[in-house]
Write the structure tokens for this entry.
Amino acid sequence: MASKSLAEQEKDIRDNLRRAERTPVRTSVLRKDTLRRLIDLAHSQHPSLKIIAATNLKLFIKDFPDLEDEAINAVYDLCEDPASSVRIKGYAAIVDVSREQQKWVKRNADVLVQLLQSDEPEEVTVVKRALTQHLDMDPAVTLGVLCDQIVPPDEPLDEEEQNIRDRLRSLVLAFLAGEAKRPLVERHASTPGTPADEVLVSGLLKAVTKLSPNDTDVIVKDILASLPSFKPPSLRGKELLDVLLAQARATLKTDLPSGGETGSLRNTRYYLDLASFVAVDRRMAHPSILLRFYYTHLTPKLVLVRLHEGDRAYVIRRVVETFAIVDESTRAPPTGPAAERTDVGADTVDVAALRKQFPEISSVLLQVFADIKSSKVRPWVACQMLVQDIARRAKDGRWQLPQHIVSSLRRIESLSAPEDGPREASAAQEQVHSVIRVRNGPLLVIAACVRRSPLAFLFDYCSHCSSRSSLRQVPPPRRVRRPP
């Protein structure tokens, strides 16, 4: 064979292939000898002969179990060939083998994941297409392989192994968030609860508890948020939010250890931002769960005073925006179809308790806001929402302004947004001041007379003042004017 020219060798093997294909007995000696020749050609010095082997191994591998391992290893060798054209044919041969023998899907998918590390963009495209084809063949098994590469192993790795593992994880996440997303959403994980959906979701939720915030961000925003399983209303969304809040709870203990020293939310913010994405931005879980976490772990004044000013402002913003969504959800009538509702996982009694508790929380947040010394840090938009909520409650006539809130509002009235700050901050500050003031004297002085003068009328008066419109001529029980 070695003494023959390349053309003669190509002719011989093609003739052999034609005879083998005509043989009716699939386990004949001729077909077995042909398979052996193809395995040998996979190690030839000529790329053209290797390509013939890669293209035709699929025709015989299924019929001769005793040669399966040799044949599949020959395919893997082709994938590592020095010639790019041969490697590309080897990637296609992996797909062919998996189609012939589904038992090879798992092993072959694992090999393809390793091949994602190729430095050749054209070859990476072929490998990703081969992985997508494996998803079509057996989505549950292939997704299991992909998730195994994402979840860190329990046993320790040396530095080199860790670097390889980290690189593979980033490549797999990019594949799932990119080329594989549409097949997943439209076919393989289109129905919640299917085996493929269960494998993917359980694997990724497990990964969230072990990966860095950056990887977790990709999993939550680019993969899980796209899946039908997480479309509101969804118990899966609540499960994801619970996982994120458990991570936030754990990092909070590190960021703010027990004791009196000042701390930050440097690590906790990652998980709180993701939790807000899930519960507030996408409504994959009811926001009351997140609001309860804030009430319990971040709004006690003893916790807030230990935080840096930037983190205090962050907590105020997050609490206010989350409460606004909870409040909106309770006020909106449940007239829409069940598929559009986001109250899955919400406890009606707990939501009512959270709303009832908000004035007390507002009091703490306003005090903390007033204590912030840096004008550039103060969250004026959140303060505006707090003050407007106070005004609305007082106007409803079921709540009277406590003195400690009056004191905070007095202090806030003397604060201002920085002139070089965002325009929305300045606008919010003006709105806050307009709600607090009345035309002929500060609202806060009038509020001191609350025992003899109901505040519902006074806040109605303030809301009119904000637009500089004239008030209805309703005589107040008592009028306190600012002294000249």
Q: What stands out?
A: The first strand starts at residue 437 and ends at 438.
